[in-house]
Design goal:
- The protein is of the alpha/beta class.
- About 35% of the residues lie in helices and about 15% in strands.
- It has a five-stranded mixed β-sheet with strand order 7-6-5-8-9, covered by helices on one side. Strands 1-2 form a two-stranded antiparallel sheet. A two-stranded antiparallel ribbon has the order 3-4.
- A hairpin with a 5-residue loop joins strand 8 (about 210-215) and strand 9 (about 220-225).
- The longest helix has 19 residues, at about 70-85.
- The N and C termini lie far apart (about 50 Å).
C-alpha cells in the first residue's frame, strides 16, 4: 500500500492506521461514503474521486487511472508534501488546498433518468418502475458482502411482490460471473451490468454495495453504504413504511 510506504519514511513521527469502510469516524465526519480516502491527522487529503472509480470521467481524478505508474508516483509526491506541511505546522495550507476538491458528492434527490438492458436484453427505464417502491443495489462479483445481500434481496422481493421493484446493477464485473450469480440467486430481481452513464446518473458509485431506496413517487427515501450488521433490519422497516 503506497500510503503505508510513505508513512514508513517518518518512523518517529507518522503512524499508519487503516480503518474499515463504514467504521471510520473521520469518514463519517467528512461525509465520505466510498473508498479509498486518505487523511493526515484530521485533514482529508485524498478522496475516492481523486483515485477514480466506476464511471469516472477521464481527467477528473488527480490519480486516475490509478494503475498508471506515473499517477502513483504523483500520489507519493503529493502525500509526502502534505505530511511535510502538517509536520511543519502548516495544516491550514493543506486544508485550504483540499477543501473544495474533496467535498462529498451530494446524494441524489430522486430516481434518476437512465436506460439499461437487463441480462435478457430487455430495456430498464424509470418509467417502467413508476408507482412502485424501487430498490437499486450496486454490487460487484468480487465483493464478498454483496452476495449475501443479494440473496436477502431476493427474499425481500418474494415478500413484497409487485409493490417492490429491485434492480441489481453490477459494476466492474465479468459478464459470465454476473450471469452465474444471477442464475444461482433466481429471476426475481432485475439483473443488469451497469454502464458509465447509469453510474453517473446515481451520483457516481464509489463503493459496493451501495443501496438506494425510492418511494412510489420516485423520491429518494434512503441511501445506504456497505453492509453493516443492522442493514437488513433498517431496510425492512423502511420498506414496511413505503409499501403500506
Amino acid at each position: 500500500m503506497l500510503v503505508q510506504e510513505v508513512a514508513a519514511k517518518y518512523p518517529a513521527t507518522v503512524t499508519f492506521v487503516s480503518e474499515n469502510f463504514g467504521a471510520s469516524k473521520l469518514a463519517a465526519r467528512f461525509g465520505v461514503k466510498g473508498y479509498p480516502a486518505v487523511f493526515v491527522d484530521d485533514v482529508l487529503v485524498a478522496s475516492p474521486r481523486d483515485f477514480g472509480y466506476f464511471g469516472e470521467v477521464e481527467g477528473t481524478g488527480r490519480y486516475a487511472p490509478w494503475r498508471n505508474a506515473d499517477n502513483q508516483a504523483k500520489f507519493r509526491t503529493d502525500l509526502t508534501r502534505m505530511i511535510d506541511l502538517i509536520l511543519a505546522g502548516n495544516k491550514d495550507v493543506v486544508s485550504r488546498e483540499h477543501a473544495g476538491a474533496n467535498s462529498a458528492l451530494a446524494e441524489i434527490g430522486s430516481l434518476p433518468k437512465f436506460t439499461l438492458a437487463d441480462l435478457s436484453g430487455r430495456a430498464i427505464t424509470p418509467d417502467q418502475l413508476s408507482g412502485r417502491v424501487v430498490l437499486v443495489e450496486f454490487w460487484a462479483t468480487w465483493c464478498i458482502p454483496c452476495r449475501s445481500t443479494l440473496q436477502w434481496l431476493a427474499e425481500l422481493k418474494q415478500k413484497y411482490g409487485d409493490k417492490l421493484a429491485i434492480l441489481a446493477l453490477a459494476v466492474e464485473s465479468p459478464e459470465d460471473m454476473v450471469r452465474s450469480t444471477a442464475s444461482s440467486l433466481g429471476p426475481d430481481l432485475r439483473w443488469a451490468i451497469t454502464d458509465a452513464p447509469a453510474a453517473q446518473a446515481f451520483g457516481d458509485i464509489t463503493a459496493v454495495p451501495t443501496m438506494f431506496l425510492f418511494d412510489r413517487s420516485g423520491k429518494t427515501a434512503k441511501v445506504l453504504y456497505g453492509a453493516p450488521p443492522g442493514l437488513h433490519e433498517e431496510v425492512s422497516k423502511i420498506l414496511d413504511t413505503l409499501t403500506n
